[in-house]
Write a structure and sequence with these properties.
With 135 residues, this protein is α+β, with helices and mostly antiparallel strands. Strand 4 and strand 5 form a beta hairpin.
Length: 135
């Protein structure tokens, strides 16, 4: 199935069906992270490399306006889930990420919200950077 066909199929789903899919993806991610199936890759990466900042971090799409009451960005957007799957990243506590949208980006640290039962990223809002052409 092509990406375009998949997007059309996902767009046709009801909100509750989309929530069920995201819950399954979350459960799968938690199961993979706890089972050790990803090997001993450091910080949640397949290749075992240590990435620390900026362009070295895996870049994932986020909606910076989709934040919880603690100011953490939710990692449950379709684009975020697609990027994590494409990069082969199983989220774990402390996984560093480069969070990006069309206009800005910033470093984030993944953590699981037990209140909302969803992965979120802690963001230093003072260090959010405008992308070139959006200053």
């Amino acid at each position: 199935m092509s990406n375009q066909q998949m997007r059309k199929r996902l767009a046709a789903l009801s909100f509750s069906e989309k929530v069920k899919i995201l819950e399954k993806l979350r459960d799968r991610s938690l199961a993979l992270a706890s089972s050790g199936l990803r090997g001993k890759a450091e910080r949640g990466y397949n290749d075992g490399t240590s990435r620390k900042s900026g362009s070295e971090l895996p870049k994932v799409f986020v909606d910076f306006q989709n934040s919880d009451q603690h100011g953490r960005v939710r990692l449950n957007c379709v684009g975020t889930v697609e990027d994590l799957n494409r990069l082969g990243i199983a989220l774990r506590e402390g996984t560093p990420l480069l969070l990006s949208c069309l206009e800005m980006e910033g470093d984030g640290i993944a953590t699981y919200s037990t209140e909302e039962h969803v992965w979120v990223a802690r963001v230093d809002w003072e260090k959010i950077r405008s992308l070139p052409g959006n200053e």
